[in-house]
Amino acid sequence: MMNSNDQPPSPGSLDFQPRRANDKAMLSRLANVEKNLPVVKTTVEVIRSNYVTKGDLAIEVGKVNDRIAMVNENMAREFSNVHEKIAKVSENMAREFANVHEKIAKTNETMVREFSKANDFSVREFSKINEISVREFSKVNEFTVRETAKANENTSNLRAEMHGEFTRYTRRVIGAMIVICSSLTAAVYFIARNVH
């Protein structure tokens, strides 16, 4: 229904196209009605000729009404059956959904419980691994300290030995040089005395 503020669409607008199509369809139906009017008139005349009195028409109308009532009753019964089936299906679906939700809840509970167990196991195992790592690291550290001390001691001993060897070698070299110098001095003195 058009409001007082609504303007009718112009013939060239897009909104006017469906109304134009509806008008064409209505005109087509009117043309069909006009075409079928003679048939309807003939049918009415046949009915009037067959049922002259109003009583006969009333009887026939009553029969038609009885048939309509029977059809309505059958339709009502069928609709009742359909609604009953729909109610049963809805009840079954609700029951199935409740079962599914219950299963999901149980599954979630089981998953939470299993995850808690796995988490506890992981914490215990990590604690064990950490304890073992600390113990092994302590052993490695002690071994490293001992080996470092041994290496330092060996290095000190080696330095002492090298220093002793160098001192002895230096003394031997100095002694040899003194002997050589003494020999040269004696030779020079001997040569000089014999020359004069």
Give the secondary structure arrangement, pairings included.
Elements (H helix, E strand, L loop, with lengths): L15 H35 L3 H142 L1
Spatial shape: rod-shaped
How large is the count of helical segments?
2
Q: Kindly state the mean pLDDT as a whole number?
A: 79
Oligomeric form: single chain
**Pattern of helices and strands:** HH
Low-pLDDT stretches:
1-6, 11-16
Note the main sheet.
Answer: none
Explain how this protein is built.
The chain has one domain. The chain is built from 2 helices and no strands. The longest helix has about 140 residues, at about 55-195. It is rod-shaped. Helices cover about 90% and strands about 0% of the residues. With about 200 residues, the chain is mainly alpha-helical.
What tags apply to this protein structure?
196 residues, mainly alpha, 2 helices, disordered N terminus, transmembrane helix
Could you give a quick summary of the protein structure above?
The protein has one domain. The chain contains two helices and no strands. The radius of gyration is 63 Å and the shape is rod-shaped.
